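Dear support,

I submitted the protein below through the web form. The confirmation email said the job was done, but the results page showed an empty box. After a refresh the structure appeared. I'm attaching both so you can tell me whether what I see now is the final result or a partial one.
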Amino acid sequence: IVSMGQMGDGAQLERAFAGATVHDLFNLLSVAILFPLEIISHYLYHLTKAMLPDSVNDGEEWEGPIKKIVSPLSDKILKSNKDVIKDIATGKVENCDAYYPVLCL
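What the results page shows now:
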């Protein structure tokens, strides 16, 4: 479906369709290999259980080790305000200039 967006140029459509086919084949082979393995051995269940600490119960959110490393670094670069989209959608503000002051060093 995504490759159909390249219908304006025949060569691009051909490359996009070939890429989409390779992607679909990869997904199909992954499922064909991993699904029977999981049904027989339940290795994904055991691998996931081994990765989670014992302090996490069913339904609780768990912050993984990568997020613990990346979050402090990204907080120094980006400050996200999750209320911006809500306020713009409800018409409280016209744009997000008031939410994100620009400071050039």
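Response: this is the final, complete result; the empty box was a page-load delay. DSSP finds four helices and no strands in the chain.
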